[in-house]
Amino acid sequence: MQNTEKLRLDKYLWAIRIFKTRSQAATACDGGRVKMNGNNVKAARAVGIGDKYEIRAESRKWVIEVVSLLANRVQYSEAIKHYVDLTPEEDQQMNQRIAASFHTGKRPSKIGRPTKKERRDLDGFMTTDDEE
Fold this sequence. Notes:
This protein is an alpha+beta fold. It is about 35% helix and about 15% strand. It is built from five helices and five strands, in the order ααββββαβαα. A hairpin with a 2-residue loop joins strand 1 and strand 2. The longest helix has 16 residues, at about 115-130. The termini are far apart.
């Protein structure tokens, strides 16, 4: 969807799915995590086609160029058509390493608490020691 009206930067970053919420996008802009030509930009800045932004999110870095404006949030496959990812290769590799080590909350296999079978073996081991 082409839009000729002014579009706020925080709304654009939210619409193309760089940030999960618009308030996170605004906070990132206010916190100096979004830069244009090395300078911090405010959340209310108007986005223009051809603008290049450096964005640092929680665990990722992007360098994007605006190809077309998008005012409303759409699915990811549509959103990626509205910008070009110019992120340097070393930052992309770092992003992949971070994603690979992402903690899902599951306990790694065979580390930590014993399994039920291992507990039974331990109980058997402990009772035989006490009886001797």
